[in-house]
Design a protein that fits this description.
This protein has 281 residues and is of the alpha/beta class. The protein is built from eleven helices and nine strands. The strands form two sheets. The protein has a five-stranded parallel sheet with strand order 2-3-1-4-5, with helices on both faces. Helix 1 packs across helix 8 and helix 2 runs parallel beside helix 4. It starts with a strand and ends with a strand. The model has no long low-confidence stretch (mean pLDDT 87).
Length: 281
């Protein structure tokens, strides 16, 4: 079985991470008492190929003290597990709690938000050191965080590098986790065709419009040639994943079309590909 323990600082995105794992087929439980972890894992051992994720954090302070013993029990049972630890810088956590008006689990009338955040960092320090995967969510959107979680898990599950292709709109900002960014705003824009304006790059009329344009097909071919030329070099450097961002103005037509076409070609080439469209969610 595949067991992932999701932990980290309050406000760093643990719930988003668990949701991302659930979306790709993991059985997820949030806020499980640490002393129940071996029992939960044992119950899944008779299901070969099962994937599960458990959220354990400071909300369970009493049970968190038993976590080292629980992890040792997992090892004795022969259960392979990985710890994913999420964190963010102090200013970001303060802003997130202020915006959501949620109470930090370690705050009370005598403990301020800053003190609660710093106390939590100390209490989780040993768990952070044991993590095999870490994500700093300080400058990521929820969508970007979901992509990073999928990338980490996908790369760990296979031997080859994971290629994440994401379409986006420049007016909404470039994805912060992008390794390569390709700007396709120079292509003819279906937005200016009234019949295509409300459609996307996945609709057949938009596909026909762009496929019939030599510049659009040439753009796809050139990006493909560049990636297939250089991705093996990155894979030789033991990179777990590469994120390729394709951007147009609004992230609805051209970037979606190019990303879709590129994903098909790269899968045929033999790459492990995950495709997402940031502005279409």
């Amino acid at each position: 079985m595949d067991l992932t323990i999701v932990s980290g600082l309050s406000g760093s995105g643990k719930t988003v991470a668990l949701q991302a794992l659930e979306d790709i087929g993991y059985y997820c439980i949030d806020n499980l008492p640490a002393n129940l972890l071996p029992h939960f894992a044992s119950s899944l051992m008779n299901s070969p190929g099962s994937q599960a994720a458990v959220g354990i954090d400071i909300r369970n302070r009493h049970f968190l003290e038993t976590l080292p013993d629980s992890l040792e029990s997992l090892k004795q049972l022969g259960i392979d597990f990985h710890i994913l630890y999420l964190y963010a810088d102090e200013d970001t956590l303060i802003r997130r709690f202020s915006e959501t008006r949620r109470r930090h689990p370690l705050t009370n009338q005598a403990t301020s938000l800053v003190e609660g955040i710093r106390n939590e960092q100390q209490l989780l320090a040993s768990l952070a050191q044991s993590a095999s995967m870490e994500i700093d969510s300080s400058h990521t959107t929820p969508h970007e965080l979901r992509s990073q979680v999928r990338n980490l898990v996908g790369a760990r599950d296979g031997t080859s590098m994971m290629l994440q292709i994401v379409s986006f709109g420049h007016k909404h900002g470039i994805p912060s986790d992008a390794d390569f960014v390709f700007d396709v705003r120079c292509l003819p824009n279906p937005y200016w065709e009234k019949t295509l304006r409300q459609q996307t790059g996945m609709d057949k009329d938009v596909i026909k419009f762009l496929s019939s344009n030599p510049a659009a097909t040439s753009m796809v071919d050139h990006i493909y040639d560049f990636l297939t030329e250089w991705l093996p070099a990155f894979e030789r450097e033991n990179r777990s994943y590469i994120t390729v961002a394709i951007g147009c103005t609004g992230g609805q037509h051209r970037s979606v079309f190019v990303s879709e076409q590129l994903a098909v070609k790269l899968k045929e080439y033999g790459s492990k590909v995950q495709l997402s469209h940031r502005e279409l969610i």
